[in-house]
Amino acid sequence: MNESSPFDLNDNTAYQQWREKKLRDAPASVEELIVEIDDPRTITRSEHRAMLDLVRRCNMAVYVSKIGDLEGSSITKAAAMRFGCHNIDRNRGAEDDGVTAITLQSGELHSPYIPYSNREIKWHTDGYYNRLDLQDYALILHFVRPAQEGGENAVMDHEMAYLLMRDENPDYIRALMAEDAMMIPKNVMNGVELRPDRIGPVFLETAAGNLHMRYTMRKRNIVWSSDPLVQEAVGWLENLLQSDSQYIYRATMQAGWGLVSNNVLHDRTAFSDVTENSADGTAKDGAGRLMYRARYHDRVYGS
Questions:
Q1: What letters, b where the CB count within 10 A reaches 16 and e where it falls short, cover 181-209?
Q2: Domain annotation for the chain: domains and CATH numbers
Q3: Mode of pairing for the β-strands spanning 182-184 and 223-224
Q4: CB 260 within 8 A of CB 41
Q5: How far apart (Å, rounded) are the C-alpha atoms in residues 104 and 199?
Q6: 224 exposed, middle or buried (CB, 10 Å; 0-12, 13-18, 19+)?
Q7: Which residue of 80, 173, 195, 211 is surrounded by the most CB atoms within 10 Å?
Q8: CA of 295: how far to CAs of 77, 88, 145, 162, 215, in Å?
Q9: What is the number of other CB atoms lying within 10 angstroms of the CB of residue 94?
Q10: What is the three-class DSSP state of 290?
Q11: Which residue in 234, 170, 160 sits closest to 201, CA to CA?
Q12: How far apart are alpha carbons 289 and 10 in whole angstroms?
């Protein structure tokens, strides 16, 4: 850890100074997260400054652009590059450029994974199952089409979750920083191991002194340590994320909107898409809700 770090449980002075600023800077509503821009492919200096200020305050900013339902994964990459994100995580299911189209898909490559369905996605950070030396520090989203009904997103700054938990019980933080706090079971498909078991902490401090969080609320995707303190901490965190905390922001993203973030906590409600072309009342592949997702091993530049 750095010599003086707010994330060092033994450095209460640094923590209290950071905590005071964090609470003072926290947005009072989801409206405070929004920056109106013209085009995410050509973000201006003033637009960039306004968004970066929000990311520095709460690790995220939402842009509302004028491009409407224009499609193209290059939109997401252009926005990401404007914020210094270049080292993209080329996960399975992504397009050739590393950006992933999140929409209803029934093919063998996508159907086992919830993001490509219309089901609820519980609270998580992206890439929590990655190797510890290849974590996803930035998450950039661009929305093309909302669902006909549902599909609301909620977001929470992971640093605020840390703050609230540390205020509740610093030992909860200590437990979730343990190297064996959580285990992500291996991913096996058709007898082929795509990813081994991954063991690691929930909260960790990067070499640059930033707080990073690895988390999922999905029960089948994680095995928690049997340590009673870890169990208590996980239960407390679940209660927080299911509460009406003022630090949880909710919105149904619309065409031309986007999220620039340092991989904050987020979820998605279930949704329905009924199209004229679907005889059974469900949307065909690629016909309904669509967003582009890009994960980066970089943080948003300047944050």
A1: bbebeebeeeeeeeeeebebbbbbbeeee
A2: 12-296 (3.60.130.10)
A3: antiparallel
A4: no
A5: 31
A6: middle
A7: 80
A8: 10, 6, 20, 22, 15
A9: 18
A10: strand
A11: 234
A12: 47
Q: Residue 167 is encoded by which pair of tokens?
A: 């205020």
At position 100, the amino acid (one-letter code) is T
Contact indicator for 153, 202 with CB cutoff of 8 Å:
no
Cβ atoms within 10 A of the Cβ of 169, count? 14
Tokens 């923590």 label which residue?
Answer: 15
- The answer to whether the CB of 273 falls within 8 A of the CB of 287 is yes
- The whole-model pTM stands at 0.92
Using one digit for the tens of pLDDT, what is the confidence trace for 104-115?
876 555 555 678
Q: Which residues pair with 41 in a beta bridge?
A: none
Residue 273, CA atoms < 13 Å, CB-side half-sphere: 22
- State the Cα–Cα distance between residues 226 and 122, nearest whole angstrom: 22
